[in-house]
Structures are given as structure tokens and as C-alpha cells.
Design brief:
With 162 residues, the chain is α+β, with helices and mostly antiparallel strands. It has one domain: Transferase(Phosphotransferase), domain 1, CATH 1.10.510. It is built from three helices and nine strands; from the N terminus they run E-E-H-E-E-E-H-H-E-E-E-E. The longest helix is centred in the C-terminal third of the chain and has 20 residues. The protein is globular.
């Protein structure tokens, strides 16, 4: 699957910045449909929640050409992902995050994972690159493409590094 481009835009109804996942043609595949389905079941302050899905939205490119794309409008987490924040932190101080900051991030992560599990969703791809930070440096868990619904079925997915 070709990864979608993520852009910032202003939501004129709420006057807030949002993230737009502009999909290439024909990329609403099973993984993305699973992500949309999981996110529509969840609403939490520490999840990059879907605001709206625009199917076949038309827009004008810089060159004037009008194109049609599926667009997912999501909450914006505009600071960085946790991996970039970790790297920056270690560059500034060899000891990494100060304990109060780390405690707050871990608390938020535990709370959002517990919320997902209580609502029947398992993320299955939690890593620093999928933990985003918003303007106040709060966690926004993202990328639910590997998510699964908790049920009595056996889920077998080959993933990860060999």
C-alpha cells in the first residue's frame, strides 16, 4: 500500500487545525478500512480521532488540475512522534526525559490502551512512531491499521521484524 500524504488544514467550522490523510486512488484497502472501523468505535483524548471521512472529495492542485481523492480528516498532533521526541531529548540530555514528563506520558499511554481494550479493540502496533504528541505534548495514539476487534476468534497475523 502506498502511504497517504498527511497535510494540515483549517477546519472552518471549528476554526481548528486538522490533519488530512489524502489517499491515492484506490487505496481504501482492507487495512485502512480496519483502521477507520476501529477509530469510529473509539473516542478518547489520547487517540488521533477521525473527525470526518470525505469520499471522492474534489480539490484543485497548485497546477490548477482538479483531482478527486478520498480524504480522512483527523485530529492534528503537530509536535512530533514520540521517537523524534526521544531522539531530541537524548541529544539535549544523556539521561533522557525528566521523570515527571516520562511519568505523564506513560500514564496517558496506559490509560488509552486500557480504554481501547475496554472497548474491544487491540492496537497491535504500539511503537514510538505511532505515538504522536499534540500542541500541549499530550499523547495521541495513531495508526490503527493493525488493530483487531477482541472476540473469540484466533487472530494470526505475520508481522514485525524477522
Amino acid at each position: 500500500m502506498t502511504l497517504p500524504r498527511v497535510k494540515k488544514a483549517l477546519n472552518i467550522d471549528t476554526e481548528t487545525l486538522v490533519a488530512l490523510k489524502v489517499m491515492k486512488p484506490n487505496t481504501l484497502d482492507t487495512k485502512l478500512e480496519k483502521e477507520i472501523s476501529a477509530l469510529q468505535m473509539l473516542k478518547h483524548p489520547n487517540i488521533a480521532n477521525i473527525i470526518e471521512i470525505l469520499y471522492k472529495a474534489s480539490y484543485k492542485k497548485k497546477n490548477g488540475k482538479v483531482v478527486t481523492r478520498d480524504v480522512i480528516v483527523m485530529e492534528l498532533a503537530d509536535k512530533a512522534d514520540l521517537f523524534a521526541f526521544l531522539k531530541l531529548s537524548f541529544n539535549l540530555s544523556p539521561s533522557g526525559f525528566p521523570e515527571p514528563i516520562l511519568r505523564g506520558l506513560v500514564r496517558q499511554l496506559v490509560e488509552v490502551v486500557e480504554y481501547c481494550h475496554q472497548n474491544g479493540i487491540v492496537h497491535r502496533d504500539i511503537k514510538p512512531e505511532n505515538i504522536l504528541l499534540d500542541a500541549e505534548y499530550n499523547i495521541k495514539l495513531a495508526d490503527f491499521g493493525w488493530a483487531a476487534v477482541i472476540d473469540n476468534k484466533y487472530h494470526k497475523t505475520i508481522a514485525g521484524t524477522k
